[in-house]
Amino acid sequence: MKDELIKHARQVLSDNDRGTYTVPTHGLYPFQWNWDSALSALGFAHFDEPRAWTEIDTLMAHQWDDGMVPHIIFHEEDDGYFPGPDVWGTGRPVPTSGITQPPVAGFAVRRIHDRATDKALATQKAKALLPKIHAWHQWFYRCRDPQGTGLIALLHPWESGRDNSVDWDDAFERVPTDGVGDFVRRDTSHANPAHRPTDEQYKRYIWLVQTFRSLRWDNTRLHDASPFRIVDPGFNAILIRSCQDVADLAGRLGMSDIASEARAMADKGIAAMDSLWSDALGQYQCYDRAAGRPVDSASIGGILAAFAPIPKERAAALATRIEKLAKACNYLVPSHDPTAPEFDGLRYWRGPVWLIVNYMIADGLERAGQVAMAERILADSVRLIEKSGFAEYHHPITAEPCGGAHFTWTAAMVIEIFSTCEVPA
Question: Burial level of 59, CB count in 10 A (0-12/13-18/19+)?
Answer without folding.
Answer: buried
